[in-house]
């Protein structure tokens, strides 16, 4: 039996898996995509534009004329991983173009790797294309290449990330994302729906809605919700309702717990979108939240959770937390553990506080020793694991819909329930009778075994 590790980092994503057919003489580009799903969407857009210009896409260093490294700069450990990936690309290929969040500070990159060809910041698509043109000039075959290109996907065909906005208006002291990606800029409602429609038409069964702050979508619109939607709706509610009409699973990520999130919960109860909310609570003690420069109404979040569950009893709540934030006392940490006991969240991630170059939290007093951070992380994860194990045990005997992600050579199917997002949550495994299943199928399964993070079941 296979289980997911309990310490998945919330700021890391798997490297891109690429594949393409290359004609003779065709210039080809490789891509290393690091960081969160939002960065993965940026990588997909860059590669889609390049393929439309006649470039091939190489799945390895040796077949590429140049390599783009899309970096992450969220934490110092993520920066280190980005620098390591750049160094590997330089060693294996030699021609490297850097983009992404870490590219917002070009001197930081060139100071370590002066031989990179170019450095661009996050979502600077045109600058990336210009850099590629300079390093590897395009050489399209007008009879083969210059045709309308279908989008390049770096995820399996049956699910896709759908980015609805860029940037963030929050000023959390531990985060430099707004400095790198700017203030919130929402994509037009109709543009998001058109992209979603195309994805569903291409066979996508699950849309994963992402942004820096999903519940703030549309607050920058001058006229509120688009024509034809309910005038009392917030833009995110109108968008979720329209996405729910497309026939695919719709999963919401990075939803801050604003009061208007309540409007979305009835859509989950009615089956329009998945009963799943990914909410970055980060902590529970008011003083810790205040030092983070986040809303400090921890008591109200418990009230809202109770209200959401009253409207939609099947709702799954996932969140991430920081332990060892500067100034965090044992009493504040204990408040977090007590809050977790009461909240009973279904899916929980946790990471230890790290200084990030440029973050205001670096200057806070009373930084927590590393050994204390580790000890608190261990205690937090022990409690979260026990909650997860009890919640999953309660699912034994239930019949539920699952989506198939993979079937291995031994005929074991790796699936996900509506409560599981890809890469970050648990799985449901089918050990028998799954040989004929295909990725993207949605099948009914009776759960017959539960672990700490994963389920096992049989087809019904």
TrEMBL record:
[4Fe-4S] cluster 1 binds at residues 36, 72, 101. Residues 27-137 form the MTTase N-terminal domain. Residues 154-390 form the Radical SAM core domain. Keywords: 4Fe-4S, Cytoplasm, Iron, Iron-sulfur, Metal-binding, Ribonucleoprotein, Ribosomal protein, S-adenosyl-L-methionine, Transferase. It comes from the Bacteria. Its main location: cytoplasm. GO terms for cellular component: cytosol; ribosome. Binds 2 [4Fe-4S] clusters. One cluster is coordinated with 3 cysteines and an exchangeable S-adenosyl-L-methionine. GO terms for biological process: tRNA modification. It catalyses: L-aspartate(89)-[ribosomal protein uS12]-hydrogen + (sulfur carrier)-SH + AH2 + 2 S-adenosyl-L-methionine = 3-methylsulfanyl-L-aspartate(89)-[ribosomal protein uS12]-hydrogen + (sulfur carrier)-H + 5'-deoxyadenosine + L-methionine + A + S-adenosyl-L-homocysteine + 2 H(+). The keyword Transcription regulation does not apply. Its EC number is 2.8.4.4. [4Fe-4S] cluster 2 binds at residues 168, 172, 175. Its cofactor is [4Fe-4S] cluster. Residues 1-30 are annotated as: Disordered. One of its GO terms (molecular function) is 4 iron, 4 sulfur cluster binding. Catalyzes the methylthiolation of an aspartic acid residue of ribosomal protein uS12. Belongs to the methylthiotransferase family. RimO subfamily. NCBIfam families: 30S ribosomal protein S12 methylthiotransferase RimO (TIGR01125), MiaB/RimO family radical SAM methylthiotransferase (TIGR00089). This is Ribosomal protein uS12 methylthiotransferase RimO. The gene is rimO.
